[in-house]
Design goal:
Number of domains of chain B: 3
CATH topology of the largest domain in chain B: Rossmann fold
Helix content of chain A: 25-40%
Strand order of the largest sheet of chain A: 2-1-3-4-6-5-8-7
Radius of gyration of chain A: 19 Å
Distance between the termini of chain B: 56 Å
CATH architecture of the largest domain in chain B: 3-Layer(aba) Sandwich
Number of helices of chain A: 11
Largest interface: A-B, 39 and 50 residues
Helix content of chain B: 25-40%
Distance between the termini of chain A: 64 Å
Oligomer: heterodimer
CATH topology of chain A: Rossmann fold
CATH class of chain A: Alpha Beta
Number of domains of chain A: 1
């Protein structure tokens, strides 16, 4: 008997192609990929109807491993390619995976505009608070005071809160999860894909090699526990005293709104243009 | 393609084929694109190219296409490549500063062999330069702007009629060879108005990319064949595959094997070399017995045409080669004329970007003179005529 997870792996992974993968042992990316696969399985979508796109970095390698229409684009630009694909073929489910540097530094402008535009895309942003693949340089989500290879004396820039940024930019659906809360993550990604409109799922993840090691965060398991201890459910957060929340972050669904989405609105534009 | 076929009746009344208009170069480019089957356009406002976006925003929804205004030129070309990967012919248009931003994704289109058309309406540069004045300073950028060794096709236009026809050609070459095609216009061509009758649909030759005829499990998206151009499956049609800007093998997966990389890179150049016969487009005027040949392109070719006529009326045996294709540089045509003429004059609105190419292919066959203007003003027929007289 093979287990359910093994079956899913065989169903969705390009297991005979480009393995082993490039990620370090203990990397959170595998948990995100697992959650993504389980969400797709639950949504019962056809592989042919899924486009899985990425930018550059550790997260950028994720689409290589799964058997969908996959696209590994330029650094920070994955959402722009996804925009073209979705507009050209609205029947496709277009899901984009990015890292924190990818999505909010070099791709920051594309990110906020995709949120504002409200095209029906799903963005999964793996936030490990560092540029992992290039060797541990500070990213827009590296905490103030943290060590990195480009802030060897301490990071003096303030971090973005990606999910809150997405809410402010107008995304229809925004959620934050962690690689510790793996079961919740499946559901958040599933809901994001289901949502008609721009969805963002920020996933707090561990890079024990490039971030944890320099900041004395311990091994992967210790880092996962850190996520457990510092995550506060969106529903609980408001009832807790503010003092107890200063080093915490919220997990759960931060925004879920119904707004006119671009594809539907553009259909009306076509009709208007053809009326006369 | 389904989107094009639906709503056929509604669409018919928005067809402009066979009708006569007073059109700007930019507007004619938009019409050329639509005639070539372009159904997706993403762009960002910039002088002197904005009218292309404006017309596309009005015209594309009429023909069941899609226009989107993006947040910058980087994202515009990203969206264009995305739409093309999904099987829809796509275009963007910009000017110098935006063209600089597009270089990154232009390389992606080269690496992934994704057809697309990028229009650059040249204005004075560098930097913000002269937004409302013509120039030809981006010629070598169009060829070499993105990093890495790569093939690309660069065409140029000199009239409203060419804005239409060469845009169609750009799409055809892009689809046939799976390369991005850059069309260089300039401020004068873009904003000149001329009467133009949009050709009837059956008189326009339109080429579509070749799609695979094997079952999905046999499909290798980057497999070599006699033409060096692999069939291209649109995303979502069952041919699931991987597309990456990394060096990749025939299946599209990243590779670091020198043998696979070399085969891939060589094929990129071979496919263009194989197509020289139809890619290298030139137009000739009274060259048969010409002793002095002017080589020009873009709006300067208009002035050159007049200057050559003036010279002929004075009894000077002058001729013109108008380069429609700038790259791959039409070496054979140019060299053949060099063998017969005393001198070649290359007038350009830059410090000599195409004259470098002309000198490169001139192996002592003739004298090459350049004439350059970089003050944002058009080179006049009289200036070229005077250069002809000097020889």
């Amino acid at each position: 008997m093979i287990s359910g997870m093994t079956e899913l792996r065989h169903k969705y992974l390009r297991h005979h192609k480009k393995f082993p993968h490039v990620w370090c042992p203990g990397c959170g990316n595998g948990i995100v990929l697992g959650a993504f696969i389980r969400a797709i399985e639950r949504l019962n979508l056809k592989k042919d109807d899924i486009v899985f796109a990425s930018g550059i970095g550790c997260s950028g390698r994720m689409p290589t491993y799964v058997d969908f229409n996959t696209l590994h684009t330029t650094h920070g630009r994955a959402l722009t390619f996804a925009t073209g694909i979705k507009l050209a073929k609205p029947s496709l489910n277009v899901i984009v995976v990015m890292g924190d540097g990818d999505a909010t530094a070099i791709g920051g402008n594309h990110f906020i505009h995709a949120a504002r535009r409200n095209l029906d895309l799903t963005a999964v942003i793996i936030n490990n608070q560092i540029y992992g693949m290039t060797g541990g340089q500070a990213s827009p989500t590296t905490p103030y005071g943290a060590q990195s290879t480009t802030s060897p004396f301490s990071n003096i820039e303030h971090a973005f809160s990606i999910a809150e940024l997405a809410v402010a930019a107008g995304a229809s659906f925004v959620a934050r999860g962690t690689v510790y809360h793996a079961a919740q993550l499946d559901k958040l990604i599933e809901k994001g894909i289901r949502k008609k409109g721009f969805s963002v799922i920020e996933v707090m993840s561990n890079c024990h090699v490039q971030f944890g090691r320099r900041n004395e965060m311990g091994d992967p398991v210790t880092m996962l526990k850190w996520f457990k201890d510092h995550a506060v459910s969106k529903d609980d957060g408001s009832s807790l005293p503010p003092d107890s929340l200063h080093d915490k972050f919220t997990v759960g669904i931060l925004a879920d709104e119904d707004k006119p989405n671009y594809i539907e609105a553009y259909k009306e534009i076509r009709e208007k243009s053809q009326r006369n | 393609m389904n989107a094009i076929q639906t709503g056929e009746k509604r669409r018919m009344k928005h067809e402009l084929n066979g009708k006569k208009f007073l059109l700007q170069g930019n507007e004619a480019m938009a019409e050329g694109a639509i005639a070539a089957g372009c159904r997706f356009f993403a762009g960002y406002p910039i002088t002197p190219a904005s009218e292309i976006s404006e017309r596309m925003s009005y015209r594309l929804p009429q023909v069941d296409g899609t226009f989107i205004q993006m947040e910058d030129e980087i994202s515009s070309l990203g969206a264009v490549i995305g739409a093309s990967l999904a099987g829809v012919k796509s275009m963007t248009a910009t000017s110098g500063p935006g063209f600089s931003l597009m270089q990154e994704n232009l390389g992606y289109a080269c690496m992934t062999e994704t057809p697309c058309v990028v229009v650059n309406v040249m204005r004075g540069g560098p930097s913000t330069g002269l937004p409302t004045s013509p120039a030809q300073g981006d010629v070598l950028q169009a060829r070499w702007g993105t990093h890495g060794d790569h093939p690309v096709i660069v065409l140029s236009v000199s009239s409203v009629s060419e804005c239409f026809s060469i845009t169609v050609t750009a799409f055809n070459l892009s689809e046939k060879y799976r390369v991005p095609v850059v069309v260089l216009s300039d401020e004068v061509v873009a904003h000149s108005r001329e009467t133009f009758t949009i050709p009837t649909a059956d008189s326009i030759e339109v080429a579509d990319r070749i799609v695979p005829n094997v079952p999905p499990e046999w499909y290798k998206p980057y497999e070599d064949n006699s033409r060096g151009v692999p069939p291209m499956a649109p995303m979502g049609d069952g041919y699931r595959h991987h597309v990456t800007g990394l060096a990749h093998d025939a299946r599209g997966f990243p590779t670091e094997r020198p043998d696979e990389i070399e085969a891939f890179s060589n094929r990129q150049f071979r496919k263009i070399t194989n197509g020289f016969f139809e890619i290298q487009i030139t137009k000739k005027l009274t060259v048969e017995d010409a002793e002095i040949v002017v080589i020009a392109y873009g709006s300067v070719a208009r002035s050159a045409r007049r200057a050559v006529a003036m010279a002929r009326s004075q009894g000077i045996k002058a001729g013109l080669i108008q380069l429609v294709t700038l790259f791959p540089f039409p070496k054979n045509t140019v060299v053949n004329l060099m063998r017969q003429c005393k001198a070649v004059i290359v007038p350009e609105m830059n410090m000599g970007q195409i004259s470098r190419e002309v000198k490169r292919v001139n192996t002592g066959l003739t004298e090459v003179y350049k004439y350059n203007r970089i003050d944002g003003k058009l080179i006049t027929p009289m200036e070229i005529f005077e250069e002809i007289q000097k020889i």
